[in-house]
UniProtKB/TrEMBL annotation:
One of its GO terms (molecular function) is phosphatase activity. GO terms for cellular component: cytoplasm. This is Phosphoglycerate mutase family protein. InterPro entries: His_Pase_superF_clade-1, His_PPase_superfam, PGM_Phosphatase. Gene3D superfamilies: Phosphoglycerate mutase-like. Signal peptide: none annotated. It comes from the Bacteria. Pfam families: His_Phos_1.
Length: 190
């Protein structure tokens, strides 16, 4: 990696507990903590001898995943609100959130509500504003936003990153490029 190349490692958070009306920001499930620990060990080996920045969406499942990764890398996670999950629509109840996201995943960005389109632009701008070696703990849709942008695609769904998977991008003068996609889980939002 040259000093002018930026390398972004986007980690999808581990499996979370079930979202409810009373708990709209769920923490990791025990399985999610195990997934995060496995990814942390992988990143510690991959990044041995290097000191990246560690950013995390401010939601509970991402901050918990980032804390586990941070412990392995001896880093304190920095909050990164731009990489939070796609915004809720006004008044959207939890019971319809998964169905709405599944519907959105079948669309192109041009067919999305204005607030979600603007959010996606913000995700790309935030990623393009990063430099150096950065690990970002984020969510399913923001990672898809970046993969689609790098591929020049308008589709909301580009792939189905499994929990705690790592998708790697490079950024330079030519823009954002996918170096490698994280492991997939085809059953997610199927």
């Amino acid at each position: 990696m040259t000093s002018q190349t930026t390398r972004l490692l986007f980690v999808r958070h581990g499996t979370a507990t079930r979202m409810t009306e009373e708990l709209r920001d769920p923490p990791l499930a025990p399985r999610g903590r195990d997934e995060a620990a496995e990814t942390a060990a992988h990143l510690a080996a991959l990044l041995a001898g290097r000191r990246p920045r560690l950013l995390a969406s401010p939601l509970a499942r991402t901050t918990e995943t980032a804390s586990i990764i941070g412990a392995a890398l001896d880093l304190a996670p920095e909050p990164a609100p731009a990489f939070a999950e796609i915004p809720w629509t006004d008044g959207q109840p939890v019971v319809s959130r998964a169905a709405d996201i599944k519907d959105w995943l079948g669309r192109g960005w041009g067919d999305m509500p204005a607030a979600q389109r603007a959010w996606a632009v913000g995700v790309v701008e935030a990623a393009r504003g990063l430099s150096g070696l950065v690990v970002v703990v984020s969510h399913f849709v923001p990672i898809n936003v970046l993969v689609g942008h790098a591929r020049g695609s308008d589709r909301v769904l580009e792939f189905r990153p499994r929990p705690a998977s790592v998708t790697i991008f490079t950024a330079g003068a030519d823009g954002l490029a996918v170096e490698s996609l994280g492991a997939e889980d085809e059953s997610l939002f199927a």
